[in-house]
Amino acid sequence: MAKLKKEDVISGLKEMSMVEVMDLVKAIEEEFGVKAAAAAAAPAGGAAAPAGGAAPSEVSVILKSFGASKVPVIKAVQTITGLGLMDAKKIVDAVPAPVKEKISPSEAEAIQKELVAAGAEVEIK
Predict the structure, then answer these.
(1) Is the whole-model pTM more than 0.85?
(2) What are phi and psi for residue 66, nearest 5 degrees?
(3) Which of 65, 74, 107, 120 could form a disulfide with 115 if both were Cys (CB 3.0 to 4.6 A apart)?
């Protein structure tokens, strides 16, 4: 088998949905015995320190709970992400799960309002 180049992997990731990428990350974690969250948390903390306490320019919207009724939350996630119904359901079923990442704080607030209106519990990180 030919060795994959970094560019080939990135190109393949661009074609995947968020749910497919999350499944891939889980498979990599299991295969190699690593935890992706620990590696991602370190740079984020280091990057925030030089800003001198300023508000972050990019945040993530994390779905913490879908509340009493799952269907309106699935529909809201589908609308927000542009994913299909089944992919949106997978995100809601995997709570806590990221809905959107690396977005502006103002966009995150709008998404949070939409999800809260659907009955979800949301966190912005």
Answers:
(1) no
(2) -95, 0
(3) 120
